[in-house]
Amino acid sequence: GENVEQHPSTLSVQEGDSAVIKCTYSDSASNYFPWYKQELGKRPQLIIDIRSNVGEKKDQRIAVTLNKTAKHFSLHITETQPEDSAVYFCAARGSFGGGATNKLIFGTGTLLAVQP
Amino acid sequence: SQTIHQWPATLVQPVGSPLSLECTVEGTSNPNLYWYRQAAGRGLQLLFYSVGIGQISSEVPQNLSASRPQDRQFILSSKKLLLSDSGFYLCAWSWTGSGEQYFGPGTRLTVT
Fold this sequence. Notes:
The structure holds two protein chains of two kinds. By secondary structure, chain A is mostly beta strands. Chain A has strands spanning 4-7, 10-14, 19-25, 32-38, 45-51, 56-59, 62-67, 72-77, 86-96, 99-106, 110-115.
């Protein structure tokens, strides 16, 4: 079935360093890849997304890259700050019977800790 | 702008008791609606999704059910709660044809 693998499960960086989280998806028909940030006890918040017709997207300190051939996509956070500490989830939009659905297949999450 | 509400925010229920969680969306029409469960320290498990009134798709066999009595209302229910039903229940919505999902504030359920 459809699957999204996410690595690493935990990541600790020093403030100011960069952080990279990687995801691999199985469904070659997936065409939309969002990233969510979830702070402790809060709801997941959509922070950036990318569609399959784009290879890279950037929004201030965060960027996402997509390699359709290899079926993997990554989140890059530069100049990390303590407030970036959270769990990050990647996701891929699923397909059904060859057609797109709005269902998202989520990765298992990465706990990012930014040490001041 | 669109707003999604969930209530209650927290709930403590004994094993075997019934459950009803409610989710409503404002500022949009005919949204796709989703129920997720998140166990402590774990990922997001899709339970149900709905593309319209009365249209419910179940993702995981369990003792939970969902209903959509109105366009912007989504209800999660159980007749008899199990200990394993404890978790953080999140409702989400998206526009029809869009993959972007927006989550509600969640209900933290503890079954004792």
